Amino acid sequence: MTTYDAGEFTLQKVREYVWEIPQEDEMRVPARVLASEELLDEISEDLSLQQLKNTTHLPGIQKYALAMPDAHQGYGFPVGGVAGIDTENGVISPGAVGYDINCGVRMMKTNLTYSDIQGREQELVDALFEAIPSGLGGGGVVQTDVDTLAEILERGVEWALEEGYAVEDDLTHCEDEGVRPGADADAVSKKAKDRGRQQLGSLGSGNHFLEVQRVTDVYREDVAERFGLEEDQIVVLIHCGSRGLGHQVCTDYLREIEKTHEGLLEQLPDKELAAAPAGSHLAEEYYAAMNAAINFAWVNRQLIMHRTREVFADVFDRDWRDMEMELLYDVAHNIAKKETHTIGDEDRELFVHRKGATRAFPAGHPEVPAAYRDVGQPIIIPGSMGAGSYVLRGGENSLAETFGSTAHGAGRLMSRTEAKNTYWGEDVQDDLRETQEIYVKAQSGATVAEEAPGVYKDIDEVVRISDELGIGDRVARTFPVCNIKG
Question: Is residue 183's pLDDT more than 70?
């Protein structure tokens, strides 16, 4: 097959698993989808392809707009989308980052094995659910005043280290060492701060979760050894973001950009792609506020990890250090960052927008933590609560193909409304426990229904495409043991 008919769009096959909507009319670059035909069938069922094509209209966009294998419809810009946009003559777009700024994942290792957990799953899931705030609204591990929150927004995980919620290794095993430079608390509105102040150290709702997992498969033993992973090992995966603070930052700047740069907005096919010209006051302000929200999210996940260490210590009556509960890595998947990439024959600074896409820098890249620089950056891709998750490493083709990016998860097949009409939460919980020995606890049955395994694409296929394309190489697979959700 050299073309793929997606109704309104005909995609040209560039090579295996790489499909392109050719540049035409007002498009500034082509649009590329990285997928198998099986995944294309699913991607083409919603507005993902239209949104991807719309993205090519953004001023300053370079090479092509990209959709990762897990792509699905989002707000203006598809989830699973990547765009590299020139920082001098381009734009920055809040919609191409998303409302949950620095939604991301971190994985913590332990020296426990699955046999250490078996028989204690219910005790552990109950203790985690009791200790870690989840769901809509307020409640967090710590409550902060205005001055403390400003410090968190500007210093990130450095604040957590100083306050005893982190150790040095937590910073060195986090993207950007847990702090984005250029963050400015003054660029974050009072309303955003008020929403976030009581939510530090909380999962939130929706697809956010904490999951205890066991390593079931190792694909690259040398890399897994460097990551500290082996079969039958227990690990903990945390998936959440910047809570109400990040959502409000996105809302605030979208509205301001729509009003201030109305002329630019009229040139775009979708107002949800509202963007501020590089170098403008609003572009600079949004970038500073976004970086502050990124720092907030890293502290949020750090506090959840700190509380998880305490829970494990209580349940297993051992110090968390004795259980070697160490951070493998933390990586963002809703973010725009200034990065230098090769375009043609020259290096150029770009705003690399990754919305539901994960940074995937290869071995040797200076921004990969020193501990992993010779094997490549760890990538963590969660599946559904009834399927495996994956640890990958940045592939050698990622910089040339995807601005150093790959997928961020399985990608949704169903809307939340459709999921609740299809599944009954208690039935999903019972089925997972009885057939797969997966223990799930959530604030409501509706949340479980919205996140039922059947709601998501095939994570194995998503990761296979990443591996085949050399943008993110499979290292290990994990499988759920117990899961808490909002």
Answer: yes
Q: What's the angle, vertex CA 301, arms to CA 484 and CA 168, rounded to 5?
A: 130
Contacts of 257 (CB under 8 A, 6+ apart): 94, 265, 274, 275, 276, 282, 286
Q: Is residue 408 part of an annotated ligand binding site?
A: yes
| pLDDT in the model for residue 187 | 98
Is 181 annotated in a binding site? The answer is no
**pLDDT-based confidence at residue 207 (cuts at 50, 70, 90):** confident
What is the average pLDDT across 379-402? 96
Catalytically annotated residue among 72, 247, 306, 408:
408
Q: How far is CA 412 from CA 79, 331, 436, in A?
A: 9, 20, 22
Give the Cα separation of 241 and 360 in Å (integer). Answer: 19
Q: Which residue shows structure tokens 């907030």?
A: 296
The predicted-structure confidence for 21-48, as pLDDT tens digits, reads as follows 999 999 999 999 999 999 999 999 999 9
Q: What is the pTM of this model?
A: 0.97
Task: Look up residue 471 and give its DSSP letter.
Answer: S
Is 247 labelled a binding residue? no
Q: Identify the sign of the CA torsion 363, 364, 368, 374.
A: positive
What is the predicted pLDDT for the residue at 138?
Answer: 64
- Residue 90 predicted with pLDDT over 90: yes
Could you write out the DSSP letters of every residue in 47-89?
Answer: THHHHHHHHTTSTTB-S-EEEEEEEE--SSS-EEEEEEEETTT
Q: What is the pLDDT of residues 116-159, one digit of tens each?
A: 999 999 999 999 999 998 877 667 788 888 899 999 999 999 99
Residue 334 annotated as part of some ligand binding site = yes
Catalytic residue check, 408 = yes
Q: How far is 86 from 99, CA to CA, in rounded Å? A: 22
pLDDT of residue 486: 78
State residue 381 phi and psi, 5-degree precision.
-125, 105
DSSP string, 135-186: SSS---SS---HHHHHHHHHHTHHHHHHTTS--HHHHHTBGGGG--TT--GG
Instruction: Enumerate the H helices of 267-415 as residue ranges.
Output: 281-316, 398-402
Rounded percentage of the chain residues whose pLDDT exceeds 70: 100
Q: Domains along the chain?
A: 3-413+456-485 (3.90.1860.10)
DSSP bridge partners of 20 = 12, 32
Q: Say whether 409 counts as a known binding-site residue.
A: yes
Structure tokens belonging to residue 8: 């309104």
Q: Any idea which residue has 């506090």 for tokens? A: 303
Q: Is 202 annotated as a binding residue?
A: no
DSSP 187: G
| 239 annotated as a binding-site residue | yes
